Please model this.
Amino acid sequence: MTATDIAAARARLLEIIKERAIVHGRVTLSSGKEADYYVDLRRISLDGEAAPLVGIVMRDLTKDLTYAAVGGLTLGADPVATSMLHAAAAAGERLDAFVVRKAGKAHGLQQRIEGPSIAGRQVLVVEDTTTTGASPLEAVHAVREDGATPVAVATIADRATGAGEKIAAEGVEYRYVYSLEELGLA
Model:
């Protein structure tokens, strides 16, 4: 994919996010904080037009990193990871995805992380939108406990509320595709 194709994918994804995912009005975020808007990126990451763009843009954001699998805390990370998996396959490359449960399963194999084994592998932790950093940090801790090395945390949208600093304090690089300014929210 050319740089022009990637730039076009990034621009179109931003347009779709602005059209379909930004909801104005008072909301309580998963962090418990209140905000005057909500960025509902599941409207994007599960959308037939936008999801392939998510995979392209997120892979471009992390193209200089080496990782064999991508995933994070369910539910926000799941469609982002699978979009990246499919974008890699479309490019003739292999990328596994994994899902970090919010709690270990009490039946079956009782795994906290689902998917191909990530033990001993370098992984990328992803999320759709990041506010406090709690969800990706929970995923970082879980993948470390499972024997994997998180190379970075990457998100589609950063709310600029300190998540990057918290993630960096854990020794993990933090990246995002769109800032609040780009989303028209700052």
